[in-house]
Amino acid sequence: MEIVYTYTKKRSEYGRQPNFKDGEASVVANFIPDESKAAAHFERDPCVTVTQVHPDVTDSAVNTSPTVSVPRGMSHTEGGWPKDIDPEMPEHVIRYRKKTERSEEFQENVEKLGGQLEDLIKQNNAIDIYEEYFSGVVVDHSSEPPSSKVLTILKDPHPDCKRSASYVSWYPDGARKLAVAYSILDFQQQPEDMPLSSYIWDLSKPGVPDFEIMTVSQLCSLKYSPKDPNILLGGQFNGQVAYWDTRKGHQAVEVSLVENSHKDPVWDVAWLRSKTGTECLSVSTDGYALFWDIRRLGEPIQKVLLKDKSGGNVHGATTLNYDPQAGPSKFTVGTETGNALACNKGAKNPADIVGNLYPGHHAPIYGLERHPFFGKYFMTIGDWTSRIWIDDLKTPIITTKYYNVSLVTGKWSPTRPGVFFTARTDGVLDVWDMFYKQNDPVLSINVSSSSLSSLQVQQQGRLVACGSKDGNVSIIEVSDGLAEIQSNEKQSINQLLERETKRERNLDQLEKEARMKARKEARKVQDEQPEKNDEMEEKLRTLEVEFFELTKKAEDDGEDGDLLSSIETGDRDE
């Protein structure tokens, strides 16, 4: 069916009628090319132009005040249990279900509803609506530039105290929650009325904390239990170790005794792999590593003095890494002297618990983490650079460039072998990707105007929690190219690390040969020196004998003048 609509309009409203006629061609304008400008011409492909369509105004203002959101909940309940049935008692529930299933009314309802649902159940079973059609397909993100965006910022509920977010820990079961330890670590800068609480945040409700962790001293370290997400382990500023169970309230379930705890702040803690999941480890600058069982925090299970075998010096620990892939009894400690210590709790001889010492930094090591894909490599962060080591070499195999500012910490990406993150004191988070570039970071994110203080990467590798000294924790989401493993990346990074290890071994061997050659030359010089000394002594003995002979002859003859002239003559001859 054709639809026709007729428009009606007066002839006078069309305007004047044009009257065209033929004419000869004429030049309206002639632009002669300028040959002098031909050298400055270049083709731009693609050509990007920017057009501003916003009207020009002399003054404009936008209201950017934050919107305060308040979380509200709603309870929705369906059905229920009879009053005489306790749903938490399995025996009551089983007995009630068996009784209900034997009733005629229940059987009639099941038969009636079963006929209506049978066709729907068959349809659901015919097609898997949850099937992933493109699972296992590796997407190439090499052409995409690395990028990031800030999802939210978690602010300290007590901004007047200017506490820093000194430690962050992700919830082990997904990226739903984040535990943050707040403290003031500057010397003698803690005010008297400073709040001591730390908080657990729910990322779906970033306006207010989800749970308050109450302590007797400010927290320096805080970590979720990998086996039970309701339990957290914390190290306090006064040297005590405590643990919290969110199901049992805000106060600590148990705290270590002061006389059996550290004498300095507990800078780092770690959960150990055990059958019970209750063993943990803490380190401090007092020079001790203490092993605990949270079921009995009265005294530590074992004390380890961080004393190296070579120099016999005691090292204060500033950071700790425990990774079961390196060994269930092995852990690595970063010290305030810039050295890393490889320790083995299971050593037969107590003197062998502290093993290799890795000297490399000119300032304390604030970050130390083992590679998540290749367990024999680990990374240290200190002074102005980050270094990558292998267990059996005492020199780093890879060292990043020196920054103009200090580095505070660093973490590996758990999903990409070649990506790691470093935090700086100027508030910038650097993302390194060794798969594409080894000399410079591929992305630098300006997170805060103040110094960064803590860093933690979520297990899926997409979210990064970055704490700063002003008390803010920024939740940053990185692009797919920085979170998803690339084709042949694991093999390429392994070859890169092996190649650098081989190069460092060759340099170490050349250095040993040079030192051995220098020792041989020094020994040769020492062997030649006695011959020269014997020759000089022989000359002195000869002169002494001649002197005494001349003296005796002069005494016998009584001619002093001849004696002096003979001595002078002998001197000139010599």
Can you tell me about this structure?
The protein has 574 residues and is α+β, with helices and mostly antiparallel strands. The chain has a domain at 148-508: 7 Propeller (Methylamine Dehydrogenase, Chain H). It is 21% helix and 27% strand. The chain is built from 5 helices and 28 strands. The protein has helices spanning 90-101, 104-126, 480-483, 489-557, 560-573; strands spanning 148-154, 164-170, 177-183, 198-202, 211-213, 219-224, 231-236, 241-245, 254-255, 266-271, 279-284, 288-293, 302-305, 317-321, 330-335, 339-344, 354-359, 365-370, 377-382, 385-390, 398-399, 407-412, 419-424, 428-433, 443-446, 452-457, 463-468, 473-478. The strands form 7 sheets. The protein has a 4-stranded antiparallel beta sheet with strand order 1-28-27-26. A 4-stranded antiparallel beta sheet has the order 2-3-4-5, with no helix packed on it. Strands 6-7-8-9 form a 4-stranded antiparallel beta sheet, with no helix packed on it. Helix 4 runs antiparallel to helix 5 (560-573). It is extended. The model is unreliable at 560-574 (pLDDT under 50).
Query: Between the first and last Cα atoms, what is the distance in angstroms?
Result: 138 Å
CATH fold topology of the domain at 148-508: Methylamine Dehydrogenase, Chain H
Work out the radius of gyration: 40 Å
Largest β sheet strand count, sense and barrel closure: 4 strands, antiparallel
| Structure class | alpha+beta
CATH class of the domain at 148-508: Mainly Beta
- Tally of individual helices: 5
Task: Output mean pLDDT.
Answer: 85
The side-by-side strand order for the widest beta sheet comes to: 1-28-27-26
- CATH homologous superfamily assignment of the domain at 148-508: YVTN repeat-like/Quinoprotein amine dehydrogenase
Helical residues, percent: 10-25%
CATH architecture of the domain at 148-508: 7 Propeller
Stretches with pLDDT under 50, minimum 5 residues: 560-574
Query: Got a strand count?
Result: 28
What proportion of the residues form beta strands (DSSP E)?
25-35%
What would the principal axes of the Cα set say about the shape? extended
